[in-house]
């Protein structure tokens, strides 16, 4: 299947169709290839996490669909979202995996196909936090097969729910640290608090992943304490 869409078609000289231009000269094909590399990226992202943590809700929000209050367990879904990132059009293919049904081979294939992953846990379900380790091991082992590493963002969902507390950990210096510091130290990956229900950080997940995937230097990186502060002020309101 070609991922080239008419929306992203380049401007050929007037009166010349893309097909005709291609057949007229190989030069146009070369220009086409070059421009595609410059202006158009296709990235596949797997979304993993325990049952009911809100993976599908987050994805639905990202692709512009409405929030659903009931839990409809996913088998596997596939979404496409186009975003503009640093003047490039990116087509993001999102694989929504199942947390409810145990399909390890399907999950492994999803990870192997992916350039990046989003790991979701939910603040109202401590068990979903413990399961992050399992998903991280799976990502690492799938990527080791193909000798690569993929960026991962951990999303802590349902921050809108009242009376929730993040687990705390003791670090190697014997200090008590928050879950986000623990995760950032342990796996060196970014952590984001989120609410699919009230649109907290939904719009920043994909750009953050693209920052990690981008070979250019990241222009601006928010220190993690800013996220933590935003998270606290959000919880204070609820
Ligand atoms: N309060 C609150 N509820 C949420 C949020 N995100 C999702 N939910 C609810 O959590 C339940 C499960 O959401 P899903 O998105 O279906 O969860 P999932 O991770 O895709 O679950 P599986 O497909 O079974 O693995 C639904 O009832 C959602 O309405 C959130 O940010 N806040
Ligand atoms: Mg789902």
Automatic annotation (TrEMBL):
InterPro entries: P-loop_NTPase, Small_GTP-bd, Small_GTPase, Small_GTPase_RasD. Pfam families: Ras (PF00071). Its main location: membrane. It is found in: Cell membrane. Keywords: Cell membrane, GTP-binding, Lipoprotein, Membrane, Methylation, Nucleotide-binding. It is a lipid-anchor. Gene3D superfamilies: P-loop containing nucleotide triphosphate hydrolases (3.40.50.300). Transmembrane segments: none annotated. GO terms for molecular function: GTP binding; GTPase activity. GO terms for cellular component: plasma membrane. Belongs to the small GTPase superfamily. RasD family. This is GTP-binding protein Di-Ras2.
């Amino acid at each position: 299947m070609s991922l080239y869409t008419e929306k992203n078609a380049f401007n050929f000289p007037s009166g010349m169709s893309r097909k005709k231009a291609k057949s007229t000269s190989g030069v146009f094909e070369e220009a086409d290839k070059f421009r595609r590399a410059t202006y158009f990226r296709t990235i596949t992202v797997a979304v993993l996490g325990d049952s009911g943590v809100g993976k599908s809700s987050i994805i639905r929000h990202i692709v512009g669909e409405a929030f659903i209050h009931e839990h409809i367990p996913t088998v596997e879904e596939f979404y496409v979202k186009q975003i503009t990132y640093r003047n490039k059009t990116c087509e993001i293919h999102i694989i929504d995996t199942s947390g409810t049904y145990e399909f390890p081979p399907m999950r492994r294939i999803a990870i192997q196909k992916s350039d990046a992953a989003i790991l979701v846990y939910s603040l109202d379900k401590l068990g979903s936090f413990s399961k992050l380790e399992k998903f991280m091991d799976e990502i690492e082992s799938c990527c080791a097969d193909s000798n690569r590493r993929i960026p991962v963002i951990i999303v802590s969902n349902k921050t809108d729910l009242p009376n929730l507390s993040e687990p705390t950990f003791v670090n190697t210096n014997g200090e008590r640290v928050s879950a986000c510091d623990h995760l950032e130290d342990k796996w060196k990956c970014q952590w984001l608090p989120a609410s699919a229900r009230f649109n907290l950080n939904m719009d920043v997940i994909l750009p953050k992943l693209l920052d990690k995937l981008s070979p250019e230097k990241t222009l601006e990186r928010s220190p993690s304490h800013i996220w933590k502060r935003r998270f606290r002020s959000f919880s204070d309101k609820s």
